[in-house]
Amino acid sequence: GQQVMQIPQYQHVQEGEDFTTYCNSSTTLSNIQWYKQRPGGHPVFLIQLVKSGEVKKQKRLTFQFGEAKKNSSLHITATQTTDVGTYFCAGLAKTSYDKVIFGPGTSLSVIP
Amino acid sequence: DSGVTQTPKHLITATGQRVTLRCSPRSGDLSVYWYQQSLDQGLQFLIQYYNGEERAKGNILERFSAQQFPDLHSELNLSSLELGDSALYFCASSVAPGPLDYGYTFGSGTRLTVV
Predict the structure, then answer these.
(1) ω before B8 within 30° of 0 (cis)?
(2) Is the CB of A102 less than 8 angstroms away from the CB of B90?
(3) Which of A48, A99, A103 sits opposite B58 (nearest CB)?
(4) Closest listed residue to residue A93, CA positions, set A76, A109, A69
(5) Which helix (H) or strand (E) holds A21?
(6) How confident is the model over A6-24, as pLDDT tens digits?
(7) Which of A45, A48, A88 is the mutation pick for testing B, counting most B CBs within 10 A?
């Protein structure tokens, strides 16, 4: 079945450093979404990418969708303590109807 | 407040018991999704309903069942509970059958502890 992997599993950065998490799918995706879950909270939708090679920015966050629509990345520039949390990618495969499959997440810690 | 309401927030029960988790989707949303989040498993998709009908099924155990009622709220029933069923259970909703540009809206979750 479809699998969505993320690396790294954990990342500790000094405040002000950059951070990147990578998402890879075993199958071609129709779209990919990114969510953020703060410690003790629930996942919150950040963005959706649909087009091959698409790049979207939200302030310090840059999201990319690979040309083959099988991978994606989230890059945070100059991390802040408010960026702490787990970042999940979630892929919708072309063959999986409406079922979005979440990656295992990357847990980000920011050291002040 | 995301607009998706889940009750109860916490539940402690014994092995072998049965519990019901409740979810009210955000106003206007017709789709409800159930996810299980364990420490070592991430977010596991269980089941989806759209406007009262089952739409997609994930890795949902036979001991688990769900339904969506005419008022669109949904219930997840977990029976013959085992220690391994201890987890956070999230409900999410969306307007359409599939995720659109605004993704899924998650509730705050129900933390189930089986002792």
Answers:
(1) yes
(2) no
(3) A99
(4) A69
(5) strand A19-25
(6) 999 999 999 999 999 999 9
(7) A45
Inter-chain touch A45–B56, beta carbons under 8 Å: no
Interchain CB contact of B108 with A (< 8 Å): yes
Q: Classify A82 as helix, strand or coil.
A: helix
Please answer whether residues A99 and B54 qualify as being in contact, where contact means their C-beta atoms are separated by less than 8 angstroms: no
Name the DSSP class of A109. Answer: E
Q: Inter-chain contact B45–A98, Cβ cutoff 8 Å?
A: no
Each residue's pLDDT tens digit, A81-94:
999 999 999 998 76
Q: Which of A32, A8, A37, A48 lies closest to B43 in space, CA to CA? A: A37
* Radius of gyration over every alpha carbon of chain A, rounded to an integer in angstroms: 13
Q: How far apart are CA A44 and CA A36, in angstroms?
A: 5
**A92:B98 CB<8 A:** yes
DSSP state string for B61-94: -TTEEEEE-TTS-EEEEE-S--GGG-EEEEEEEE
Name the average pLDDT for chain A.
93
- Looking at residue A95, its pLDDT comes to 64
pLDDT value at residue B3: 93
